[in-house]
Design a protein that fits this description.
Blueprint lengths: L6 H11 L3 H11 L2 H19 L6 E9 L3 E9 L2 H4 L2 H17 L27 E2 L2 E5 H12 L4 E9 L6 E4 L5
Antiparallel strand pairs: 1-2, 2-5, 3-4, 5-6
Helix pairs in contact: 1-2, 1-3, 2-3, 3-6, 5-6
């Protein structure tokens, strides 16, 4: 093994990016160290994710999350195939998104959905994709979604969600823009 890395680095890179053993080893050999290889793999994955974003996502799931009997979330997340819709990593992503919505109460899905009159301070974005992920504040929900797209190899889209809070009469449904 050449370079400045160990078998544990290969294993860690595989876990973080979802790539195969050969790809992880090759990235470490080409880039010399773990951090550089990780950044290169992320960039490669994001370019693949961008290419996948044009593909239609018609499979998926609707799931719910209830927090302490006071806050409830329904969310629909779509992917390209039923195979991925049943994948534990996809299901975990959808659970995390529902938890995020319960905790942070976003009003919109993406920045493009936010009317200019409601744009707020960047520290508290009203859209889901721009929010910091509550389990890792260094990552946005948009980045998390792009990483899962790269890892699972399919386009993934948050289609709509609804958040209900006990005693709050001003409920809203959040829908993505109609797909053509």
């Amino acid at each position: 093994m050449s370079g400045n890395f160990t078998i544990d680095d290969i294993k860690k890179l595989r876990e973080m990016t979802g790539v195969g053993l050969t790809d992880a080893k090759k990235a470490l050999e080409e880039n010399g160290d773990f951090e550089t290889a990780l950044e290169a793999m992320k960039a490669k994955g994001l370019s693949k994710a961008a290419a996948r974003s044009a593909r239609e996502a018609t499979a998926g799931i609707v799931t719910s999350y209830i927090h302490d009997g006071r806050i409830g979330v329904l969310i629909e997340v779509n992917c390209e195939t039923e195979f991925v819709a049943k994948n534990e990593q996809f299901l975990g992503l959808v659970r995390d998104l529902a938890l995020q919505i319960a905790a942070c109460d976003p009003a919109y899905i993406s920045p493009q959905d936010v009317p200019p009159s409601e744009a707020t301070d960047p520290g508290h974005p009203p859209d889901l994709l721009s929010q910091a992920f509550i389990k890792d504040l260094k990552t946005t929900i948009g980045d998390l979604l792009q990483a899962k797209i790269a890892q699972l190899g399919e386009n993934i889209v948050v289609s709509r969600f609804s958040r209900f809070e006990l005693g709050n009469p001003e409920q809203r449904l959040v829908f993505a823009a109609e797909r053509e």
